[in-house]
Design goal:
Elements (H helix, E strand, L loop, with lengths): L12 E6 L4 H16 L7 E7 L5 H15 L6 H8 L2 E5 L5 H18 L5 E5 L6 H10 L11 E5 L7 H14 L5 E3 L7 H11 L2 H4 L7 E9 L8 H26 L8 H14 L7 H5 E7 L1 E3 L2 E3 L17 E7 L9 E7 L6 E8 L17 E7 L3 E9 L7 E9 H4 L7 H11 L8 H21 L4 E4 L6 H8 L9
Parallel strand pairs: 1-2, 1-4, 2-3, 4-5, 5-6, 7-12, 8-17
Antiparallel strand pairs: 7-13, 8-11, 9-10, 11-12, 13-14, 14-15, 15-16
Helix pairs in contact: 1-2, 1-13, 5-6, 6-14, 9-10, 9-14, 10-14
């Protein structure tokens, strides 16, 4: 059953986190699990086992995690709730390539099945570096941990990056498939766990007023923007080899494009939805050769001031190559070559060290005929803005008549905010995604063919960059990006929409 169709209660299980002393575990995974526990979303027969190399006890591990939860939980920490949750957390020390460590893990999981009633269900989370994936998967296979007992299940969550290009993604997909079937493999993209990203389908397909307008007849163009003031933030080793195209476009932004552009699925089951997303990726017009320079801008930030703080240039960041040509910003013009979107340009941009933080999709509707109100006030085009983060919600921009004895128009907004409308905090993305993986719902996870089709599109661009020594623009940190990106969209007669 899809998460959009109805919630399945998760069964008792043990979650094994490989790389449990890392940043993701402390900032996202454990706070998410604590929040789920407080909201009674997890079964009491649930356990977390941290698998990592460092020497420590269960008590020390729990204490370190408590400090992280107090810092990062969206709803604070209640001492009683924490004590209850902490009793389900355990630490298992082992090197990733130590066969004995996996055999010992298997015995410990059996003990927890008996002590806590986890029923032999296993969820393995690969939160280690991608270079460790093969080692971990091979040992899960050799130790027998990949096999679920009769009446139980074993699943694996694979954290991004899922490959660095098409060839590496195909290799990793093949490796995972040797150990876990596709139906038990969950490739996580936290953008898909955000409430507004999930709500795009409901907005479109549960509201006929929008779906009937969601096509080239009424929509002029579409923009997708992801802006962040942060720099590399301790991820220099990864980011300098990746860049904005691999780090954000290949997964997060193409996934948002798929949700905005897909056809209605035949049902709300996971594969029906993912089938339509794959069709969008296959419909993307490939960009290569000279088209890369016409349709794409790549740039890197220089020193500047972000939110009142002076920050260095990318090349002056710690552990970054001083001659690095890695892009921290990308702007693209894309085309979806199918019946619905023929002739509608899509624009996408993403960057670090920008002035504001936010991710949004904006659908810009065609102008109304300039017959009645062409000179009557400060009119603007109708725009539907879907805010993914941080202020999740939807805004419709339209024109209304000014009060009084006048026919002049003025732009107004109709706003929907999740936190004010539903009077409750939205769950964090990892809360939803972890719960879905435990429940066996793969709707919000990427399928193998999704990942590979996205890499096909991105690889063409990167190959053209490498073959032609692509130009690298620069922009001051704390701005909206390079002027070349403004020139790109202006060639089509448009302007970037502010976050």
């Amino acid at each position: 059953m899809s998460v959009l169709a109805g919630r399945i209660s998760p069964e008792p299980c043990s979650l094994v986190i490989f790389g449990a002393t890392g940043d993701l575990t402390h900032r996202k995974l454990i706070p998410a699990l604590y929040n789920l526990t407080v909201e009674n979303a997890l079964p009491p027969e649930f356990s977390v086992i941290g698998f990592a190399r460092r020497e420590k006890s269960d008590v020390i591990f729990r204490s370190e995690l408590e400090a992280s939860v107090r810092k990062y939980s969206r709803q604070g920490v209640n001492d009683g709730s924490w004590a209850e949750f902490a009793s389900s957390i355990f630490y298992h020390r082992s090197e990733f390539d130590n066969e004995a460590g996996y055999l010992a893990l298997a015995e410990r999981l059996k003990d927890l099945d008996h002590e806590r009633g986890t029923r032999g269900n296993r969820l393995f989370y690969l939160s280690a570096g991608p270079d460790q994936f093969e080692t971990i998967l091979r040992h899960l296979e050799a130790s027998g941990l990949k096999k679920a007992a009769e009446g139980s299940w074993a699943r694996v969550i694979v954290e991004k990056p899922f490959g660095t290009d098409l060839a590496s993604a195909q290799k990793l997909n093949a490796l995972v498939e040797e150990v876990f079937p596709e139906s038990a493999t969950y490739r996580i993209d936290h953008y898909l766990g955000k409430e507004t990203a999930q709500n795009i389908m409901a907005l479109r397909f549960a509201n006929s007023v929008f779906e009937q307008l969601w096509n080239s007849r009424y929509i002029d163009h579409i923009q997708i923007t992801a802006s962040e003031p942060l720099g590399v933030e301790g991820r220099a080793g990864y980011y300098d080899k990746s860049g904005a195209m691999r780090d954000m476009v290949q997964n997060h932004l193409l996934q948002l494009l798929c949700l905005a552009a897909m056809e209605p699925p035949v049902g709300l089951d996971a594969d029906a939805i993912r089938d339509e997303k794959v069709k969008v990726l296959k419909s993307l017009r490939r960009i290569g050769g000279d088209d890369v320079k016409r349709q794409i801008v790549r740039a890197q930030y220089n020193a500047g001031t972000v939110q009142g703080r002076r920050v260095p240039a990318y090349r002056d960041e710690k552990d970054i190559d001083p001659d690095s040509g890695t892009e921290t910003y990308v702007a693209l013009q894309l085309n979806v070559d199918n019946w619905r979107w023929a002739g509608v340009p899509f624009f996408m941009r993403v960057g670090k060290r920008l002035a504001k933080s936010g991710t949004q999709i904006s659908l810009h509707f065609r102008e109304s005929p300039p017959v009645l109100f062409n000179a009557a006030g400060d009119t603007k085009d109708n725009v539907l803005v879907i805010r993914i983060q941080p202020d999740e919600g939807i805004t419709l921009h339209m024109n209304a008549k000014l009060p009084g004895n006048t026919s002049h128009l003025h732009p107004v907004r109709m706003d929907f905010h999740y936190h004010t409308t539903f009077e409750r905090a939205n769950p964090e993305a990892y809360e939803r995604l972890l719960l879905d993986a435990m429940s066996g719902d793969a709707t919000l996870f990427a399928r193998r063919d999704e990942v590979e089709e996205a890499w096909k599109f991105v690889d063409d661009i990167r190959e053209a960059w490498e073959a032609n020594d692509a130009d690298l623009a620069f922009y001051p940190a704390g701005t909206a990006g390079p002027s070349e990106a403004d020139d790109l969209i202006r060639r089509f007669g448009f302007e970037w929409r502010d976050i």
